[in-house]
Write a structure and sequence with these properties.
395 residues; alpha+beta; Ribosomal Protein S5, domain 2; Alpha-Beta Plaits; 2 domains; 12 strands; globular; binds alpha-D-galactopyranose
Length: 395
């Protein structure tokens, strides 16, 4: 048993007076390339990381979810019967909406859920663009699956997590985060085709690191801005269908078609469409560079992605721009960009292991000089996806 599993198992025992029946680990993710492309049915390149939600659970026969959030020292509960959205919990218990959303999505899909007693903790920074919510969703889906006697495919579990975001939380997000949390593999990047919902694993090049620098800026306005971006992409498709019959998603738009018809689009919509068209190309070219072991080319695609997120998709903030631009100057750093939805959160930098100390120093120094405080830095290991384990009973 590792430390976190032991921690949640012991806490469970102290709170509920018996051993848990199952423990779950569900990771956060970083996205290396392909931002705001998943809901345009394009390609993305995320990976699960060694920051995760850890949960211990057992069934109860009360039809209740009774949940202790150890990090917040809070407990909350809801009844599973007649569970319908919207069911927003009061804001000091906003975390409870995530398990509630999962319960709603699973029941909406026709699954019968048992009541559960749960304790959980998380090492995924919250609201930082590294999918703390997808990790919580995946953890609760796995707990309910195990304890309700269900057997769901990994893809179905990812879809349920996305469904709870879309239908319960009101964020029209794509499937990338839940997919990555559930399909992660140690030292492997996930090249996901968001139309076919199939993926290829590409090894993360040995001898290199993913350095994450958290700006500490939390994603205010993220939900409304996110949904606006998605609408603008849909608007682009609708307007372009007049010239390209049968166009289904921006993934299908070629660069030539974009150039030919861009003037038909309102200026902001045009910028969004261009980002998506070029970002799709960057993911495919970047993945090919990785297969060839060409980190320099890959890193250039990563840098271009940041510039496009900043200038065309307009989801960056000054703090992320300073962090990325600082990393670009460090020898041995191949590329750096914001990761996730944007409007705050983290950048990731891909660097040779030998360059990590200098990179960390440069990021800290530049950030302090510009903003008077330090970014939170960590090196993310590329980790396995979410998994449940039958709890080992103490004798
Ligand atoms: C959030 C969403 C994802 C994806 C990213 C942007 O993380 O949950 O579906 O759209 O933003 O790439």
């Amino acid at each position: 048993m590792n430390d976190e599993t032991e921690y949640v198992s012991n806490a469970f025992g102290q709170i509920f007076g018996h051993d848990p029946a199952v423990t779950v680990r569900a990771p956060g993710r970083v996205n290396l390339l392909g931002e705001h492309v998943d809901y345009n049915e394009g390609w993305v390149l995320p990976c699960a990381i060694d920051r995760a939600v850890w949960l211990a659970a057992a069934p109860n026969n009360r039809g209740l979810a009774r949940i202790h959030a150890l990090d917040m020292q809070q407990q909350g509960q809801f009844a599973l019967a007649d569970f319908r959205p919207p069911r927003g919990h009061k804001t000091d218990q906003a975390w409870l909406n995530y398990p509630a959303g999962v319960a709603w999505a699973m029941q909406e899909a026709g699954h019968t859920l048992t009541g559960i007693d749960v304790v959980f903790t998380s090492t995924v920074p919250i609201g930082a663009g590294v999918s703390s919510s997808a990790a919580v969703e995946a953890a609760f889906i796995l707990a309910w699956e195990a304890l309700s006697g269900l057997s769901l495919s990994t893809l179905d579990k990812a879809r349920l997590g996305q469904r709870s975001e879309n239908g319960f939380m009101g964020v029209q997000s794509g499937i990338m985060d839940q997919y990555a949390s559930l399909h992660g593999a140690e030292n492997q990047l996930i090249l996901l085709d968001c139309r076919s919902l199939t993926h290829e694993l590409i090894p993360f090049p040995a001898g290199n690191s993913i350095v994450v620098a958290d700006s500490g800026i939390r994603r205010q306005l993220a939900h409304s801005e996110y949904n606006t971006r998605r609408q603008q992409c849909e608007q682009a498709v609708t307007l372009l269908q007049a010239y390209i019959p049968g166009l289904r998603a921006l993934r299908d738009l070629t660069l030539e078609e974009y150039q030919r018809y861009a003037h038909r689009l309102p200026a902001a919509v045009r910028r969004r469409a261009r980002h998506v068209v070029e970002e799709c190309q960057r993911v495919l070219a970047g993945a090919e560079a990785l297969r060839q072991g060409d980190l320099t080319t890959f890193g250039q695609a990563v840098n271009q992605s940041h510039i496009s997120c900043r200038d065309l998709y307009e989801i960056s903030i000054l703090e992320l721009d300073v962090l990325a631009a600082t990393a670009w100057e460090v020898p041995g750093c191949y590329g750096a960009r914001l990761t996730g939805a944007g409007f705050g959160g983290c950048i990731i930098a891909i660097a040779n292991n030998t360059a990590v100390p200098a990179l960390s120093q440069a990021l800290t120094t530049a950030y302090r000089a510009e903003f008077g405080r330090e970014p939170q830095l960590f090196t993310a290991q590329v980790a396995a996806g979410a998994a449940a384990t039958s709890a080992i009973h103490k004798t």
